[in-house]
Amino acid sequence: MVKHVPNSLIREVIRAAGGHDADLKDLAARHAPADIVRVLLDEITTRCPAPVNDVPVLVELAVRAGDQLFPTYLYVLKGGPVRPATKDEAFIAMRVEYELGELARELFGPVRENVTGVRRTTLFPYVADAQSEGEEGSGAEHIGTHFLAAQQGSQTVLAGCHSRKPDLSELSSRYLTPKWGSLHWFTPHYDRHFSSYRDQQVRVLEIGVGGYKHPQWGGGSLRMWKHFFHRGEIYGLDIVDKSHFDAPRITTLRGDQSDPDCLRSVAEEYGPFDIVIDDGSHINDHIRTSFEALFPHVRPGGLYVIEDLWTAYWSGFGGNEDPKQYSGTSLGLLKSLVDSIQHEELPQDGGHRPGYVDQHVVGMHLYHNLAFIEKGNNAEGGIPPWIPRDFETLVAVSSGGHE
Predict the structure, then answer these.
(1) pTM of whole model > 0.85?
(2) Is 368 helix (H, G, I), strand (E, B) or coil?
């Protein structure tokens, strides 16, 4: 079983990377540099895109912490993921050296676009050493076999060493999620609504890990969100055990979204959440139960997202093909939220008492099969009672007595 770095240490690294240089120095003083380096390397290997080089190469990634140097050799070859290796598995085509603090900022700090001067690089770093020791082979002799692979392999590794905003549609395809390019076209909407959260230390809960009852399928969207929210923690709730997808910054939880007590228990232990995404069973009653149980555990300024609204019309999911018969469906819930947002405009003598949802839903964005619900304090104040409620009287009052 793979032993992962504790999330508590990852949180500390992320927090320090977003702070002052003194915070990073304090972090290195409180924890073994080797443990911090392991956090950084785990992150890099999960962010690297698929290699494109046909010739295998090693990229040496060296992290310096004071007078200590921690080298890791990353094997890069088309057809497999970037992985740690021994130094004799392939030709070392490039050496990349970072100071520990700089690499931490690149990975987990607020995004720094077009940054230069953060690393030292050396092409064919050990060719000169080999010649001085009497071994055959010059740098020129490697141009034909390793020059292109060095460029491609370095690009692959360095793509995993920064936190610049990725293309969500590309990530969806990379991690095999149906949120773009097949069943759905959600990623532009997600990018629009989630971009302002990227530099925050968010907690994201997604209901539904994927793969249904298959023990190995699924997990793609959790990896996608981990990559997109480079400073966040991602939680996945599923009725089937999906713990084999657990990884640094990804935690799977087993639970039933139709059980409100289970949902509240999860939220009390792991929340409050910045974002909740319901991509679970898509059964209408489950969608409504989940919203009622989890929306109170979304922090002010956060979002609650519901996917796959098409089931509101499918009887097999508790829906109704007649749009007028929407009671009890996901769309019925969303239609009721329109009134919740406007609750302060209801007649004060009508006996309406605003509930939690009325008081905390402040906005909603609806797209094909996708809804974003904004959490906040819905108390801007309604139109005052002394404003006339009929058009003719309002015109007369607003005209200053002129007819």
Answers:
(1) yes
(2) coil
